[in-house]
Write a structure and sequence with these properties.
The protein has one domain: Rossmann fold. Helix content is 29%, strand content 28%. Helix 4 links the parallel strand 2 and strand 3. The strands form 2 sheets. It has a 7-stranded mixed β-sheet, sandwiched between helices. A two-stranded antiparallel ribbon has the order 6-7. It is globular and about 45 Å long. The termini are far apart. By secondary structure, the chain is of the alpha/beta class. The chain contains 6 helices and 9 strands, in the order H-H-E-H-E-H-E-E-H-E-E-E-H-E-E.
Amino acid sequence: MSSTQQHWQQLYDSRRPEQLGWYQQSPDFSLSLFDEIGADPSLAVIDAGCGASMLVDSLIQQGYRNITLLDLSAAALETVKTRLGKNGNIPNYRTQDITLASFPARFDIWHDRAVFHFLTEAQDRKNYMATLARSLTAQGHAIIGTFSMTGPDSCSGLQVVQYDEARMNAELPDDLELLKSRPSTHITPSGKPQQYLYFIIRHKYAR
């Protein structure tokens, strides 16, 4: 187990999800972006770095069934599976590093609320984007949330990279393009506001 994986595993082993700074009672903003890209329940979705997010609960309620949940922390995934109860067998659970991942099938929607901004090494970001490009269907969309330029420069004791559209464009490989960005303010459980920027990305020649 890598030191990064140990870090996240320890966090989810030692705290309840609602005690963590990124906890959301409802993933309303992400769901609004699903609507913006015209998503529907027939599509294949991956929630990369999902942690114990409630997004999967909402997707299942809306009728989604082709859902993959990926996180470094097995404890986080087990929390989600237990919470889902009788629906716990619907998602495909993967304990894996997204920068090293490969998948047997492609996804129509790639959702990442807050993984990419933790990648402080250029090679890790390159690997992430390569994984994204080969894992997204030709007409698919990626929704990637990061701290904005006015957001925090660290989280959970780890440094992050803040983004605006120029910085995100600089990270995209030739076959991906940034369609738009949307700002969002996350309020932590302690009441502290954090500024995010969400990016909607797709294959450059998808029409």
